[in-house]
Amino acid sequence: MARILVTGGSGKLGRAVLRDLVAHGNSVLNLDQAPPQEAICPSVKIDLSDFGEVAAAVMGGIDERGGPFDAVVHLAAIPAPGLAANARTFTNNVSATYNIFEACRLAGIKNVVFASSETVLGLPFDTPPPYAPVDEEYFPRPESAYSLGKLVDETMAAQFCRWDPELRMVGLRFSNVMYPEDYAAFPKFDSDPNARKWNLWGYIDARDGAQAVRRAILADFKGFEAFIIANADSVMSRSSASLLAEVFPGVEQKGNISTNSTLLSVEKAKRMLGYSPQYSWRHQ
Ligand SMILES: NC(=O)c1ccc[n+]([C@@H]2O[C@H](COP(=O)([O-])OP(=O)(O)OC[C@H]3O[C@@H](n4cnc5c(N)ncnc54)[C@H](O)[C@@H]3O)[C@@H](O)[C@H]2O)c1
Fold first, then answer.
1. What is the pTM of this model?
2. Of 13, 152, 203, 269, which has fewest CB within 10 angstroms of its CB?
3. What are the φ and ψ backbone dihedral angles of 51, each rounded to 5 degrees?
4. What domain range is 241 assigned to?
5. Is residue 160, in this structure, part of any structural domain at all?
6. 95, 116, 117, best to mutate for ligand 1 pocket (most atoms within 8 Å of CB)
7. To test the ligand 1 pocket, which listed residue (5, 6, 7, 12) has its Cβ within 8 A of the most ligand atoms?
8. What lines the ligand 1 site, CB under 6 Å?
9. Using CA positions, which residue lies closest to atom 26 of ligand 1?
10. Is residue 252 situated within a structural domain?
11. In this structure, is residue 61 part of a structural domain?
12. Residue 23 is part of a domain; what is its CATH number?
């Protein structure tokens, strides 16, 4: 059993992460400015932009909710472009991440997992991707203040790890988070190949996202790594190769693209984290 601090556990992805970590026998504390919608584990109200609050929480200074903690999972953020003014999105998200990273450094926590985003791959792909499936091998192409903030998060993680060779920081570039109740809308995506081209027709079931978080906590390397986390298939009935040929005709198709396979490659996550997506909107 590990003692794990999670930020953003009251949110869409966070709820699934709390459930998964608790189900796997961990002792979990949620930090969020919003109250939890269900009582999965203890929850503390926090403003992550306030370093004093963050430092106290990470270092075990909240009455009855003390540490020490073995790992920190940082999910809290304004979760997409266009939900708040650009400067608010950037400042809220990057300051929260800095505060968490710095508090972990002071507390000596060597195991940090955080939510990055598929957006750093160049979403909404008004500029086509360099090749497909996209992977972690090309330099990020943030196209929004939200995505720029995620790239800053990843850059900070790489530097914190350079400062401390014992530290591991894992940035999970989640695709669009879905629950089974969202799948009723999927069949209608088929009528317009352009409707979901913005993320190459990808998605992540929240339960598989939670699996990726759990596996990242258990990873055995040091340093910073980023991983794309998506499901194994697309949101479409049409083949992925035919979608690419129609919507991105000039883009190189890399390797063997099987019928509905994801164009957001999860090969690195499979190889280094043992990630193995279990869910699909096709068979629930
Ligand atoms: N939802 C998606 O499709 C998606 C895709 C890729 C990446 N992500 C990332 O995954 C993470 C979780 O996303 P989500 O969809 O669950 O979002 P969400 O909005 O449902 O949950 C985020 C939580 O963070 C909390 N929060 C935000 N700023 C805070 C602050 N300053 N102090 C304290 N709490 C704060 C909110 O109260 C909320 O409960 C985010 O980092 C997001 O950027 C989400």
1. 0.98
2. 152
3. -60, -35
4. 3-273
5. yes
6. 117
7. 12
8. 8, 10-14, 32-34, 46-49, 75-79, 92, 96, 115, 117-118, 174, 176-177
9. 76
10. yes
11. yes
12. 3.40.50.720
Average pLDDT over residues 29-44: 96
| Residue 1, pLDDT score | 81
Task: Indicate the pLDDT class of residue 46, thresholds 50, 70 and 90.
Answer: very high
Number of domains in the chain: 1
Q: What is the pLDDT of residues 52-104, one digit of tens each?
A: 999 999 999 899 888 899 999 999 999 999 999 999 999 999 999 999 999 99
Residue 268 falls within a domain, yes or no? yes
Arithmetic mean of pLDDT, 121-130: 98
Q: Which atom of ligand 1 is nearest to the CA of 49?
A: 31
Considering only CA atoms, which residue is closest to atom 30 of ligand 1? 48
